[in-house]
Write a structure and sequence with these properties.
Layout: H1 2-8, E1 15-20, E2 23-34, E3 40-54, E4 60-67, E5 75-77, E6 82-88, E7 93-99, E8 101-107, H2 111-115
Parallel strand pairs: 1-7, 2-8
Antiparallel strand pairs: 2-3, 3-4, 5-6, 6-7
Length: 127
């Protein structure tokens, strides 16, 4: 839908690329704060899309990530049986990521940062 709006306005991305990953995760990084009444409350600090791929050791590793406000929320394509999200980057490159699996999580630790211990950013196949 976002791409249709860009075309309608006469703004057409120069290139388009589709990537395939093992899973797309919508992660909400939260901190637990205490309300004045003493009840715990989860405060969302970051909403991010994490794109996971299967590594040679059989473990899921982060391939890349985007803040949710910079990419579209994943949509399920029933015909193809895939989850898909899209965005247009600063270089007017339209990027689409597809995955057979999608999960939404809430965590106090950032999974993308934790994965850097196993696969640093400079070793990732980024989009």
């Amino acid at each position: 839908m976002f791409l249709v709006a860009l075309i309608f306005c006469g703004l057409v991305p120069e290139r388009e690329t589709t990537y395939r990953v093992a899973a797309i995760e919508l992660n909400h990084v939260v901190s637990i704060v205490e309300t004045p009444g003493g009840l715990p409350l989860a405060q969302v600090n970051l909403r991010q899309l994490i794109f996971w791929e299967l590594d040679s050791d059989g473990e899921l590793r982060v391939r890349d990530w985007r803040r949710l406000d910079l990419a579209a929320h994943p949509i399920y394509d029933h015909r193809r049986g895939l989850w898909r999200c899209s965005w247009v980057d600063r270089g007017w490159h339209s990027r689409h990521v597809e995955a057979p699996a999608f999960v939404e999580t809430y965590s106090t630790d950032d999974p993308e940062l934790l994965d850097r211990q196993h696969r640093p950013i400079n070793h990732r196949r980024r989009f």
